[in-house]
Amino acid sequence: MAAGRRQELAQVIVDIPHRDLDRVFHYRIPETLAGEVEPGREVWVAFHGKLTRGWVLELEVATAELERAFALQPVEAVNGSYRLGHDLLALVPWLARETLGTKADVLRLMAPPGPPVRPAAWVLLAAKPDREAIAFWEGIDPECADLLRRLSRAPQRRMKYASLTGKGGGVPPAVIDRLSDAGLVTVRQLLPKLAERATMERAREKAHQTETIADPAAKPASITNSSALPPLFPEPALTPDQKQAVHYLTEALDAAGRGGDSRPFLLHGVTGSGKTEVYICAIREALARGRQALLLVPEIALTPQTERRLRERFGSQVALLHSGLADAARRQEWQRIYRGEADLVVGARSAVFAPLPRLGLIIVDEEHEPSYRQDNDLKYHARETAMERARHCGAVVVFGSATPALETYAQALSGRFQLLKLRQRPAGGQLPPVDVIDMRDELAAGNKGMLSRYLLKAVEERLQRRQQVILYLNRRGFSTFVICRECGTVVTCPHCSISLVYHRHGEQLHCHYCNFRQDVPERCPHCRSRAIRYFGTGTQRIEEELRARFPGVPVLRMDRDVAAQEGIAPVLDAFGRGEAPILVGTQMIAKGLDFPRVTLVGVLAADASLHISDFRAAERTFQLLSQVAGRAGRAREPGQVVLQTYCPEHYCLQAVQLHDYEGFFRREIELRQQLGYPPFARLARVLFSGPEEPLVRVAADTWAEILRQQAGAVTMGLSSGLAQPEIDVWGPAPAPVAKVENRFRWLLTLRVKGDRLAALRAALIAAEGEYSRRRGRPAGVTISLMLNP
Ligand code: ADP
Ligand code: ZN
Ligand code: ZN
């Protein structure tokens, strides 16, 4: 090493799915790659003798000790096609800690979609480029032609990427990118593509077109055409509420532009109150200031209508990221965003990691949706991640919802979020009246069917008026519970206040938090009636009842079975064309549906989701039913909603009936406080799964024992001396879905009062360490940790 020259080392996170390896490893930067190894770059390094992908977190000046301590190996290759921005890099340690995942797990989410491409493959020559192709590229892009020429002369069929792109190699990585549509491609894939493009270009030239090179990000034809049509969503004049919201958001954008911080916003307004219109205005303001915008939507809300509306306003600046895209298309969109060619990115959960270089506004629409949390792999929540990312890139954050998550609304009331309200529906359209039908009366009147007399009569009226009806069976959660058909009492756990779940096997009721069990009671514990039984119903039964009552009237059905056999779209299309006046379905039809001829929505078992074993049961039910009710009012004809229930006096259903979010919030937050559930406590979950249930039990029991010992030690003051909050350990108990793909699942639930997530995290990490030191651990059991379930 030349004297006086400061040698730099790369701190690399290697892409190995192992928690014990979740730390930086040091690598030497060889002369040929000096200047190309930078923080945020993907590199390939030798790890335990294998060429492995990794990412550079930081550079560090080499010291004699470091050099001595590690026999430093060199970085083998750099992937020049992308570099993670500093705002994304800053998320890496934070998100790994927040989710109890590894830094490699986080980085994998940020990398371009699709499997990694090994550098050796990048320069594996499959065919030699022909001279004509080189001559052609000479005219368009001399640098690319030069690369092709060199490849055609390569002595071996294999070349190290580093030797092509490194110092002395002379080919800037960007040149390789420019030649590829998707960024990371192998040369093997690249050559046929080049030939193809050359042919295409020649044809174009013949057609006397002026364009010199095809733009891979060119707009699809349909969009170019649509600008000729009158817009479907003309821009309205804003209402005073909307104006005020846009005003505050614009102010915040300006403050952010000056480097100031702003509180996140909560935009609260019912479906149809014009939230999307506010987003659009805010996005435009962000773009006008040279910043970019990210709009997150739940997967299901990414309808063609939303897309059309945004494209009408923002044209080819829009990029879409969703799970429906094929790998290649996803990669292509990713590269477009990375190059800064898309100023508005619309996508589901994982789009929160989209590589926007000038991000200035992040909107999370329907922020309460559970789909923003990823349940497998890295268990992150897009809402929290958006907030943290915004802090690092100086972006303004907006959460929007008609029914905000309880935690979010509590933040808004406490002033940590800024609350913006939209109070009316600008396009008119009243919220529909909601009738609540007490099913206990039906039983008393001798009606044992699933449809109340009131609802049947309402259906009959719609049939006579040639309007359409949707009957929605609330079956969320899948599990069944036991209810008294006379007084509506549902059997709950004496320890957790959570509904007990009926298990046909053994005729027992189980608590899925603490594993309390009891036999199915013969009489209602409240009113002593014998009409107490488990509640489980199907869409087929409703269909049969309808056919019996209205012979000859076609009925369409949409549930899991139909979706698996025919798919969802054909059934919905048929209903849209009016092929049947009645559609019966499960939660699959609750969202994203706009059928103008539907004037009646009936919800059967409106209370079913109140009794799933989850502390958020009431919140989820309120959100779901409000959504359904919001839909019915969008028709031109006035709509009506009928809710059938065994507990009409439940505050959740009453709030739905009155379209009263605030009322619901006040009752629910009070209960959460009394029972010690979030936001007044923090929960964590440990999920054990494996093919052999006894082994799964052993693992779960061992963990429970370790955690309880720790908690005991804390209570008895044996811990490190600092006052530690007390942690409750519940279970183990079978998971709500007790068996998935032949793997048995058991759960431990942990709770700490207050906002002391760090204590839960520490307990879990300590338990994990202790468990890994135990001898005779059961084989084949997967253990997965989740904070804030
Ligand atoms: P949300 O996102 O809250 O459901 P939207 O922004 O989609 O509401 O608005 C609902 C309907 O009202 C849309 O058809 C939209 O075009 C229309 N709309 C929104 N704002 C206005 C306004 N200020 N004046 C008239 N119509 C409006
Ligand atoms: Zn009873
Ligand atoms: Zn319990």
TrEMBL record:
<dbReference type="InterPro" id="IPR014001">
    <property type="entry name" value="Helicase_ATP-bd"/>
</dbReference>
<feature type="binding site">
    <location>
        <position position="493"/>
    </location>
    <ligand>
        <name>Zn(2+) 2</name>
    </ligand>
</feature>
<dbReference type="InterPro" id="IPR041236">
    <property type="entry name" value="PriA_C"/>
</dbReference>
<protein>
    <recommendedName>
        <fullName>Replication restart protein PriA</fullName>
        <ecNumber>5.6.2.4</ecNumber>
    </recommendedName>
</protein>
<feature type="binding site">
    <location>
        <position position="527"/>
    </location>
    <ligand>
        <name>Zn(2+) 1</name>
    </ligand>
</feature>
<keyword id="KW-0238">DNA-binding</keyword>
<keyword id="KW-0479">Metal-binding</keyword>
<dbReference type="InterPro" id="IPR042115">
    <property type="entry name" value="PriA_3primeBD_sf"/>
</dbReference>
<dbReference type="GO" id="GO:0008270">
    <property type="term" value="F:zinc ion binding"/>
</dbReference>
<dbReference type="GO" id="GO:0003677">
    <property type="term" value="F:DNA binding"/>
</dbReference>
<dbReference type="InterPro" id="IPR041222">
    <property type="entry name" value="PriA_3primeBD"/>
</dbReference>
<dbReference type="Pfam" id="PF18319">
    <property type="entry name" value="Zn_ribbon_PriA"/>
</dbReference>
<dbReference type="GO" id="GO:0016887">
    <property type="term" value="F:ATP hydrolysis activity"/>
</dbReference>
<dbReference type="InterPro" id="IPR011545">
    <property type="entry name" value="DEAD/DEAH_box_helicase_dom"/>
</dbReference>
<comment type="function">
    <text>Initiates the restart of stalled replication forks, which reloads the replicative helicase on sites other than the origin of replication. Recognizes and binds to abandoned replication forks and remodels them to uncover a helicase loading site. Promotes assembly of the primosome at these replication forks.</text>
</comment>
<dbReference type="GO" id="GO:1990077">
    <property type="term" value="C:primosome complex"/>
</dbReference>
<dbReference type="Pfam" id="PF17764">
    <property type="entry name" value="PriA_3primeBD"/>
</dbReference>
<keyword id="KW-0067">ATP-binding</keyword>
<keyword id="KW-0347">Helicase</keyword>
<feature type="binding site">
    <location>
        <position position="484"/>
    </location>
    <ligand>
        <name>Zn(2+) 1</name>
    </ligand>
</feature>
<dbReference type="GO" id="GO:0006270">
    <property type="term" value="P:DNA replication initiation"/>
</dbReference>
<dbReference type="GO" id="GO:0043138">
    <property type="term" value="F:3'-5' DNA helicase activity"/>
</dbReference>
<dbReference type="Pfam" id="PF00270">
    <property type="entry name" value="DEAD"/>
</dbReference>
<feature type="binding site">
    <location>
        <position position="496"/>
    </location>
    <ligand>
        <name>Zn(2+) 2</name>
    </ligand>
</feature>
<dbReference type="InterPro" id="IPR027417">
    <property type="entry name" value="P-loop_NTPase"/>
</dbReference>
<comment type="similarity">
    <text>Belongs to the helicase family. PriA subfamily.</text>
</comment>
<dbReference type="InterPro" id="IPR005259">
    <property type="entry name" value="PriA"/>
</dbReference>
<keyword id="KW-0235">DNA replication</keyword>
<dbReference type="Pfam" id="PF18074">
    <property type="entry name" value="PriA_C"/>
</dbReference>
<feature type="domain" description="Helicase C-terminal">
    <location>
        <begin position="519"/>
        <end position="672"/>
    </location>
</feature>
<feature type="binding site">
    <location>
        <position position="511"/>
    </location>
    <ligand>
        <name>Zn(2+) 2</name>
    </ligand>
</feature>
<dbReference type="InterPro" id="IPR001650">
    <property type="entry name" value="Helicase_C-like"/>
</dbReference>
<feature type="domain" description="Helicase ATP-binding">
    <location>
        <begin position="256"/>
        <end position="422"/>
    </location>
</feature>
<comment type="subunit">
    <text>Component of the replication restart primosome.</text>
</comment>
<keyword id="KW-0413">Isomerase</keyword>
<dbReference type="GO" id="GO:0005524">
    <property type="term" value="F:ATP binding"/>
</dbReference>
<keyword id="KW-0862">Zinc</keyword>
<feature type="binding site">
    <location>
        <position position="487"/>
    </location>
    <ligand>
        <name>Zn(2+) 1</name>
    </ligand>
</feature>
<keyword id="KW-0378">Hydrolase</keyword>
<dbReference type="GO" id="GO:0006302">
    <property type="term" value="P:double-strand break repair"/>
</dbReference>
<keyword id="KW-0547">Nucleotide-binding</keyword>
<dbReference type="GO" id="GO:0006310">
    <property type="term" value="P:DNA recombination"/>
</dbReference>
